[in-house]
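From the methods appendix. Each design record in this collection lists the tokenized structure first, followed by the designed amino acid sequence. Records were kept in a plain field format so they could be parsed without special tools. The example shown here is representative of the layout used throughout.

RECORD:
FOLD TOKENS (150 positions):
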């Protein structure tokens, strides 16, 4: 229930409780709080049982934790019926980014895509040499005008 409370925070709460309620009243306050929490839990469990009874036998496996969106999505997507893992693993972002960069710069897409993919033997490692001067038009030469891009 209190998974995110650390030891220092717990000590601070205890010290504040002793200062506010005093050492004489603190045990009674703790009993009252635990009794209230117990009653709230009993009330929520009885409400869950009533809801399950009203829903009928079709929902006997219904869990209220499934109403949490994160739990619901995780439960239904863990089976990977849609093949999302294959789709996610099928994207090579380096290759696609190189293609986009080359398309913007006007380079040959197939040649640069082959250069952007990492080598199988690990010699190139898929790294870009930043010391080389980029290939392309001369600095004085203007790039071709594309009316569709503007």
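DESIGN:
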């Amino acid at each position: 229930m209190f998974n995110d409370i650390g030891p220092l925070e717990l000590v601070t709460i205890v010290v504040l409780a002793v200062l506010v309620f005093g050492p004489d009243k603190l045990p009674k306050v703790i009993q009252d709080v635990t009794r209230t929490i117990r009653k709230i839990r009993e009330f929520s469990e009885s409400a869950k049982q009533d809801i399950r009874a009203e829903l009928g036998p079709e929902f006997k496996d219904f869990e209220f934790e499934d109403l949490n969106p994160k739990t619901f999505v995780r439960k239904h997507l863990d089976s990977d019926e849609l093949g999302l893992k294959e789709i996610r693993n099928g994207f090579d972002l380096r290759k696609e980014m190189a293609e986009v960069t080359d398309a913007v710069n006007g380079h040959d897409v197939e040649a640069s895509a082959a250069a952007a993919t990492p080598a199988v033997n690990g010699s190139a490692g898929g790294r870009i040499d930043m010391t080389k001067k980029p290939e392309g038009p001369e600095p004085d030469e203007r790039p071709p005008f594309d009316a569709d891009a503007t």
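APPENDIX NOTE: Residues 7-56 form one domain.
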